[in-house]
Amino acid sequence: MPERKKLLLRLDPDVYDAVAKWAADDLRSVNAQIEFALRLALKSAGRSPRRSPPAQDDD
């Protein structure tokens, strides 16, 4: 498995709180929730990466 990229992300505190609540509701870490949201956005924009595990829906 390729090494995961690290980055510093600055977020508005209200955005962070909303993502943290969403992550808790989905039983994910904030980091995993951000990646999940980015993958959904990429898929919606028709820009999914080639080597990408599918975004997991917890329906």
Automatic annotation (TrEMBL):
GO BP: regulation of DNA-templated transcription
Record-linked InterPro entries: Arc_rbn_hlx_hlx (IPR013321), Ribbon_hlx_hlx (IPR010985)
Domain of life per record: Bacteria
Protein name: Arc-like DNA binding domain-containing protein
Phylogenetic classification of the source organism: Bacteria, Bacillati, Actinomycetota, Actinomycetes, Micromonosporales
